[in-house]
Specification:
Elements (H helix, E strand, L loop, with lengths): L4 H30 L3 H27 L18 H28 L3 H27 L8
The protein binds fe (ii) ion (FE2) (2 copies).
């Protein structure tokens, strides 16, 4: 099959997203470590591991297509000044990922590229889980902004 430039575009956009997610979650994990919040430090560190697995599968897919990975334009990392801001920012990040993987999955269905459809659908499923976990973390936070 000839190389599909649109597919390569999705793979590279996804790779850029995942590299940015690794950078963002690692930074947030280290900030939580500095704040003495061990539980959240460990949570964000686990996210780094999962996003790195996404990086790995995208790089595998690019290499199989004979294309070196080249995510040159990484989206900006956003950190947040407290835990509640971090979670809000991460929810945006995960929602952007979900939109990207939904679009990539739909495209692959349209062109009957089932191999890459299943790659994007698997990552999509992980990002949906990440968003659920963040929603749960947000719901469990003490109500910092509430007036008493
Ligand atoms: Fe990811
Ligand atoms: Fe994620």
């Amino acid at each position: 099959m000839a190389r599909d430039p649109r597919l390569l575009g999705y793979l590279h956009r996804a790779l850029g997203h995942e590299m940015a997610a690794v950078q963002q979650y690692m930074a947030q994990s280290r900030i939580c470590d500095q704040w003495g919040m061990e539980k959240f430090c460990a949570h964000f560190r686990q996210d780094v591991t999962e996003e790195l697995e996404h990086v790995q599968s995208l790089i595998d897919a690019l290499l199989k297509l004979g294309t070196p990975p080249n995510a040159t334009q990484l989206p900006a990392v956003r950190l947040g000044r407290n835990l509640s801001e971090m979670i809000a920012i991460d929810l945006v990040l995960e929602s952007e990922a979900i939109r990207l993987y939904e679009e990539a999955t739909e495209y692959c269905i349209r062109v009957r590229d089932f191999e890459h459809q299943s790659l994007f659908a698997k990552i999509l499923n992980d990002e949906l889980t990440h968003r659920e976990e963040l929603n749960k973390m947000e719901a469990d936070l003490p109500n910092q902004g509430a007036e008493t």
